[in-house]
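Deliverable D5.2: sample structural annotation.
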Amino acid sequence: MDQERPGGPEQVPGTGHVVDVAGPDPADERLVIRDAATGAAVPDAFQRLWNPHRMAYIDAGREGVGRGHDDDCPFCAAPGMSDEDGLIVARGVHAYVLLNLFPYNNGHLLVCPYRHVPLYDEATPEETREMAELTQTAMRVLRAVSHCDGFNIGMNQGEVAGAGVAAHLHQHIVPRWASDSNFFPIIARTKSMSQLLGDTRRLVAEGWPAAD
């Protein structure tokens, strides 16, 4: 019994052309040769992850929207929302903790002062102390709920240093696992996220110690 042969694009050796092999019966196969010069949307060997929602972030960044300029600072807006809508994990007196909307890893947290201040050396001693305390607590909670093996912790100061929201101080806490590197982020600059933000927020918030 003949096996069906799936159709699809194949590369013709040495030509740079793509060949469509169609039909389950080899005797009826039709070869349609197309190349990039004559055909649009030529099939190729790559799978694609479509993320159209990212365009809103990209377009806003081009216009300076959502980067902490004028009245559009997301870190000033978040405390006025519910914890669920603002992705807030914990609230302190001078600073608070929320999830990064575009995380590098599951559980990527940000520690921000409530006050709209851009640079670390402009934070008050009270803000600095509470940000440090919240960072330590976040590490303990993430270690307990996600069993991570390490952390990347740091601040990007100014747009030239890579700060997405340069006008509002924030510290990154990125949990790391021994096996969290793969070909996606290294080659394709794509992260595979295994948990939704709402589920991550709830998990971390439930693990956060109650305030004294």
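Annotation notes: The two ends are 74 Å apart (CA to CA). The CA atoms of residues 138 and 169 lie 17 Å apart.
The annotation will be released with the project's public dataset once the embargo ends.
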